[in-house]
Amino acid sequence: MTQGSILLGLSAAAALALVVMGIWLLWQPGGNRVKAGLMVLAGLVIVFNAWINSLPAPGAG
Fold this sequence. Notes:
This protein has helices at 3-27, 33-54.
């Protein structure tokens, strides 16, 4: 296992936790909708960042 794949797995786990808990918070009566939305957004940003970092460097072909 390379260091990149370990970091990609950890970031995917963190993103999944944020998205799942954000959705769970949306369904709770009296849950903070802004916090839930920000949690989901943060999870999506983490996934996007991990995807960008997993791409090969330009010119390293």
